[in-house]
Amino acid sequence: MFSLLTKIFASRNKRIVASLMPIVEEINKRWEDYKKLEDNQLPKMTEEFKQRLKEGETLDDLLIDAYALVKESTRRLLGKKWLVTEIEKEWDMVPYDVQLIGAIVLHQGKIAEMATGEGKTLVATMPLYLNALTGKGCHLVTVNDYLARRDREWMGPVYESLGITVGVIQMGMTPEERKIEYSKDITYGTNNEFGFDYLRDNMAVIPEHRVQRGHYYAIVDEVDSVLIDEARTPLIISGPVDVSVQHYEDLKPAVERVYKMQNFELNKLVVEAERKLKAGELKEAGEMLLMVKRGAPKNRLLMKLMHEPGVQQLIEETEASYLKEKKMSEIDERLYFSIDEKANIVDISEKGRNAIAPKDPDFFTLPDLSQEIARIDRMEGLLPREKLVEKEAVYRRYAEKSEMIHCVHQLLRAYSLFEKDVEYIVQNGKVVIVDEFTGRLMPGRRYSDGLHQAIEAKENVKVEKETQTLATITLQNYFRMYEKLAGMTGTAATEANEFWEIYKLDVVVIPTNKPIRRIDYDDLIFRTKKEKYQAVVNEIKRVHKTGRPILVGTVSVEVSEILSKLLKRENIPHQVLNAKYHQKEAEIIAHAGEFGRVTIATNMAGRGTDIKLEKGVVKCETCLLKKEEALSRLKTEEERRAFEESLKKSNADPEKCIKDMECGLYIIGTERHEARRIDLQLKGRSGRQGDPGSSRFFVSLEDDIMRLFATERISSAMDRMGIKEGEPLKHKLVTRALENAQKRVERFNFDIRKRLLEYDDVMNKQREVIYSLRNEILDGKDLKERVIEYIEDVFYSIFDEFATSRLIEEWDIQGLRKELVENFLIDINIGKGRKEEIEDTLLNLIKEKYEEKERIVTSERMREYERIILLQSIDANWRHHLYELDALKEGISLRGYAQKDPLVEYKREAFAMFEELMFRIEKDAVRILFRFRPEAITLPEEVFGVEKKEEFSIKSVAGEKEEKRDVVVPQDKVLTIGDPVLDKKFQEAISKMKAEKKIKSVRDIGRNEPCPCGSGKKFKKCHGRDL
């Protein structure tokens, strides 16, 4: 079935590629015409293309001309040199036909899968140039700052020779610098920089601070890394919470004690189980070992014992029996806590709860809120306000207890599931996460949900303050905002389903320019990591003697260092790359193809850099492998004759090469990754541009993917075959079992990413509404109409709450008066009359009061105050809403126990919370607009250069009737500072302000406003100092 699907996919792919060949031929014909142009005519062609777009032609109509022009630009650069990341490089590229196919696919908004060394960086120039003609701005997204800068500097002259501007976003740039780079036709940058700039733009308080100008077209380089590997980590801008209550340091001693007690007891249990195994008491031994597996899956004594024949199978059979009979809880209750390694969960038993809080039996018991609230409501003799205080105390106790229980769980996860120097390292007194895909350190990134603080407590470093989310978006939703999205990578076909389902991106596999001559050998399986590492070292030692370059791929920094130590003992010179310094590593890995080189690198170190083979590494001038395929690709008879002549000079034996490759780059993988793509990327470093090469993976039963997903069948096979210590297993069954294990993990991770997206889609729709509202306000549109709507909404809501009947006698008059004072600062006696008349009268009074306030402040300033207050209300309430959504998401999974779909429940409650949020924004904004004093409203300093405040007195206060007072305006005093120029400017400005009816007197100018003379000082420090 799988092979049938493969054939169908392959034939479909071939049809797509074949359908594009006529376009490629047209591009090459037009290219011949463009060779006649003068250099100064190339930018003029760009202007001509733009004009054709304005006249109604489409980008598809321009594709052939535009691509041919870019190809001609690259030809004219041949032999020229310029600096790329401080290194002088010579241009030597003109697009091949297969690169033109890739470029067409990218313009169509698809993913082009192109093998390593096929020139993806050059391919992107053509669709970027074509789409940049619209003037809307195009983005090229890379995985790190170094690649963004390198590609911009390397490809820059191609664009610039055509009259197109190109920029790059780098970490540490100021908003002003970023705005300049985004204003260019094409902008290079990383996914994080683009995403965080979007979030920051939607936190800006003045329009000028926004740096991006829309999301039209993006090409994502290494698209699988960005849209799949990184997709599980949302981008979050966080800030400190108002009140931070943390118990990690207080609870750490108790949790650490229980963790050590469990490990001590489980070690004793393994020893006892081993004794029972020898005595033939298999049932009891199986139960004991299952208990150890549930309580400490990585227990070293257990892992060592599992290498014994039949032990692994015994544990699996015991586990299956307990699961079938639904008795696993009996095992778990004998532990302090149990661990589900696949789901990354720790569950505390009754025994564990008693051990953590022996003196407080109710420590893990949460109060029943509904019962407590009902009890308070039934209490007689308490005033409504006193009942409210009691309820607040109950909520506070519930939150505190819930937080403490959460801290215990996170501390146990930190001790049991997160290993130092694997998932994280401690550097300069801080816990730094290690990226599971790249092996790179990620300073600044923190585990969510208090886990990072738990690890900090565990490692005895400073526990950082709790933070709350200010703005967040997943990369999935960020990139789905682009009108057109495309991507490039060497490995996308294995994830084609996810690309289509999440992003609606089709995958097209682009044929290589030359046949791939890399031989991928079967995996070798060992029982233990120790045996595996020794076998890797022996293989390196054997091949190193022949002078072949070797690249060893590891999954973690720890494994790199272990292998490095072993190689030093054997006196084998080598270099270690742990993906910490992108530029330095790119330079080192570029030399990994030199004669006799041994390079150890985490799987992703130096990604994006080709490994070119040194002269002498390939023994034959023309490789005999896949010679028929190579011949079929040659277009002319002359090329075929030359190729056949070169073949005759080769004296190598193809059969021998296939059995044991003797030249080219040798890739050694030290562990299978959970995603097949990562393994394929490692293999793909060898065999670029038709070079020969080979790859082999060394795997042990102790590797995480084997231990969790594929051990049982392989372990029993090794038992049956009588594999001895240090001896590898090599069989088709092994390869198949490994691939199936990887597929299971990929499906598991895809489900997690899909679930994350489903939850984020709820927030995404809400985010779009809030950000759209925010941008409308920020863009300076007249907000008065919106404010009046808010006033009406808030008033009607209050009125309907307290005036529930048509009979005034049944209204809560006191409650209504209190709310009107609280929100609108009006206090009036409500007389008799029809409900509609009273409603209209009150609303008109409120509107009149607002109009009066506007007359005092002036319309222009009132619009500015409205803008600031509305933004503040949106931001404060949105932050609170995100915090509430985080809390909702955290506990929503428990609804599953009540046979309810957690996602449906989350959507329902999130919608209700959002409706409440929108009303809260309106109510808070209205309340502040009626109560504010201008001196308390600080306008952004960046706009006005100085603080802008205004002073005036509110005439009515809560509980008092408003009274009118006649304001006596004293005659203006002539104000001077002794500077004839500034004094003259001041008098002219005052006359103009009076003529425009902005002020009646100089006393109307706020003391903290900029002085009208233009000196830049505050009025009270300049012409107003004598007032």
Please give a structural write-up.
It is an enzyme of class 7 (translocase). It catalyses: ATP + H2O + cellular proteinSide 1 = ADP + phosphate + cellular proteinSide 2. The chain has 1027 residues and is an alpha/beta fold. The protein folds into five domains: 9-241 and 475-509, Rossmann fold (3-Layer(aba) Sandwich), CATH 3.40.50.300; 247-366 and 401-464, Pre-protein croslinking domain of SecA (Alpha-Beta Complex), CATH 3.90.1440.10; 518-619 and 662-730, Rossmann fold, CATH 3.40.50; 624-654, no CATH class; 753-934, Helical scaffold and wing domains of SecA. The strands form six sheets. The chain has a seven-stranded parallel β-sheet with strand order 5-6-4-7-15-3-16, sandwiched between helices. Strands 17, 18, 19, 20, 21, 22 and 23 form a seven-stranded parallel β-sheet that branches. It has a three-stranded antiparallel β-sheet with strand order 11-12-13, covered by helices on one side. Strand 11 (424-427) and strand 12 (430-434) form a beta hairpin. The longest helix has 47 residues, at 732-778. It is flat, with a radius of gyration of 35 Å. It starts with a helix and ends in a 32-residue tail after the last helix. The relative contact order is 0.07. The model is unreliable at 1-5 and 939-973 (pLDDT under 50).
Short description:
This protein has 1027 residues and is of the alpha/beta class.
